[in-house]
Specification:
CATH topology: Histidine-containing Protein, Chain: A
Strand order of the largest sheet: 1-2-3-4
CATH architecture: 2-Layer Sandwich
InterPro entries: BON_dom (IPR007055), Lipoprotein_DolP (IPR051686)
Shape: elongated
Domain BON: 18-87
Order of helices and strands: HEEHEEH
Strand content: 15-25%
Organism: Pseudomonas linyingensis
Biased composition (Basic and acidic residues): 105-120
Region (Disordered): 93-120
Number of strands: 4
Radius of gyration: 18 Å
Length: 120
C-alpha cells in the first residue's frame, strides 16, 4: 500500500518537474528570440502541451511565438487561444486594449473580414 502511494507521488513529481522544465525552455526561447523579446507572453506546460497567453503587438508576433514554442524539444502541442494581439499607433504609448481592439490570435483573419463588411 505504501509503495503504491510512493510510486504515484514520484510519478506526479516527475511530471511536474517535466512541465516546469518545458515551461522554462519555452520562456527562454521566447525571450531570447529578437522578435518576441519583451512581449507579454505567459507560458504554461502540462504533459507536453504548452499554453501561451497574454498580449503581443501584432498578429505576426503571435505566429512567431507559436512557431518558436513548437520548435522547443519536448513540446507536443501549442495552445495559443488565449494569446491576444493588439496594435499600437505610431507615436503613442501602448495601452491595455479595450474589448473592441482585442483580437484573438486564432480569429484574426475572420474578425478583419467581418470589420470590412460592416464598414461598407
Amino acid at each position: 500500500m505504501k509503495m503504491h502511494s510512493f510510486n504515484r507521488y514520484s510519478h506526479d513529481l516527475g511530471a511536474t518537474v517535466q512541465d516546469l522544465w518545458l515551461t522554462a525552455k519555452v520562456k527562454s526561447a521566447l525571450e531570447l528570440a529578437k522578435p518576441t523579446r519583451g512581449q507579454h507572453i505567459h507560458v504554461k506546460a502540462h504533459a507536453g502541451v504548452v499554453t501561451l497567453s497574454g498580449q503581443v503587438a501584432s498578429h505576426q508576433l503571435c505566429e512567431q511565438a507559436i512557431e518558436l514554442a513548437r520548435g522547443v524539444h519536448g513540446v507536443a502541442e501549442v495552445d495559443a487561444h488565449e494569446l491576444e494581439t493588439w496594435m499600437v499607433a505610431p507615436g503613442h504609448l501602448p495601452e491595455a486594449p479595450n474589448e473592441e481592439e482585442t483580437v484573438d490570435c486564432q480569429d484574426h483573419a475572420a474578425m478583419d473580414k467581418d470589420r470590412s463588411k460592416t464598414r461598407h
